[in-house]
């Protein structure tokens, strides 16, 4: 309890510090820049630095208060709003930041969606991403317009339509850490949730683009139904087909460009510093050319990532790319979203915003999911249970791409869209604050998953030791290197820590233990041959997450573990935390 109070106190101090600096030092800082003949350049440097440091602060504060980083970013955007006016006042700069963020976020979404999972679950994913998304958008628009009339909020028909399209896509990024801790009875449930997010980001952006085109062209209808019926007219059909055709075509071109890079890397193992440049060039250029040809740049970037399969040859590039997207671009978008909001208006639209947020989670999402997936209870290879569908209907986070679309529409300053930003903000906040903590409870109540945790605390031997951690059989190729390290540093104990996580079964645990004991025996024989048989080996298996066990070992007072060896893939799970561990980690192939 004491540590929680301290964490919240630190977070409040940081927030108040940003707020105070924004209001009391903004004028002084910008006036000092204006005295310099290159003041425009100085302002640009300052804003890039500010967004970078805010992204770092947001990451730390979100860990302290256990809130999704997107939520924290919105509040920090509100606090730093005075500093960010130079960006908000220039549509071109705002457009570049938002467009770049969207292209790379969707490209990353494609990379995170294994193509084999998509092929296996194509029916469920496409059902949620097309008819499911349309149902979500239509019902949301209906509720917004009806709720506005009931509460007297003054939301226009056009605003209700645009909000329905903008908010229709899901984003489980806020609960992916929670999903990692759940062992699903049907693994397909988790794959559907993650893949749906990536696809609905694209289809939601596509639907929003169609409506925006109609609005900008001056088209008007007198009902929600008429607006959505317009999607199925010949003109709209041609527009959608054009966006799909060039989006898919340029996405395939992007895939071949990345395949060229990958094949080059396999033959020439050098030039790591140049890989990222090409890796970023592809989705950005594909996005630009697809949009220029009248296609969907969002779809092109996503298809490029979906078709491409990352290998170890580009692992360092992938890590840097993930850090760029998660540590800078996504926080930046939510910071700008928060900075755009007028607090007075946000409070004014709170009743309708919170009402729609609750209806969104409790009515719209369940209806959409059950209509989209019920057929798969009876047909297809991957049949789904009622409980599986029910759990998916409870996952309703709204994330980065809806935020991008909100910022884009607001930057256009379209007439008659009052309340769009404020209501959209309330829905995003509701889904990100309410849904994540309920997810594991709902999963266990429905009995679709169990939390991966250990029943007992980890007990380690007292003598100094070297540890190798593994999620499977990977240790077999690394144990010799670990043993040699222990021998060289006069450490007499080698521990193998196995955490099977999602793959855990008693049978697999016993099978791997048998392999481990055989490997220990061969290592002892090798040591005997070189007349050095002082090292002993120990096998420890845990049911919880590997990263949780590593954290526990690192936080132990007087931990006996001198160093932890791990495969390079563990970086996917410890991107930010590795340097903060009190025990050094060594990564081996």
Write a brief caption for the model:
With 589 residues, the protein is an alpha/beta fold. The protein has helices at residues 2-24, 26-34, 39-65, 69-79, 81-88, 91-111, 115-120, 122-129, 131-151, 157-166, 176-180, 187-216, 224-229, 234-267, 272-292, 297-307, 315-340, 343-348, 350-373, 386-393, 400-412, 420-446, 479-488, 506-529, 546-555; strands spanning 182-184, 449-451, 465-470, 493-499, 536-542, 561-567, 585-588.
Describe the fold and architecture.
The protein has about 600 residues and is α/β, with parallel strands linked by helices. It folds into two domains: about 450 residues, Na+/H+ antiporter like fold; about 120 residues, HUPs (Rossmann fold, 3-Layer(aba) Sandwich). The chain contains 25 helices and seven strands. The strands form two sheets. It has a five-stranded parallel β-sheet with strand order 5-4-3-6-7, with helices on both faces. The longest helix is centred in the middle third of the chain and has 34 residues. It is globular.
Q: Whole-Å distance between the termini?
A: 41 Å
What about the largest sheet?
5 strands, parallel
Shape: globular
CATH class of the largest domain: Mainly Alpha
- State the secondary-structure class: alpha/beta
Give the uncertain stretches in residue-range form: none
Overall average pLDDT: 85
Q: Give helix % range.
A: 55-70%
Work out the radius of gyration: 26 Å
What proportion of the residues form beta strands (DSSP E)?
5-15%
Q: How would you write the strand order of the largest sheet?
A: 5-4-3-6-7
Number of strands: 7
- CATH topology call of the largest domain: Na+/H+ antiporter like fold
Q: What is the domain total for the residues?
A: 2
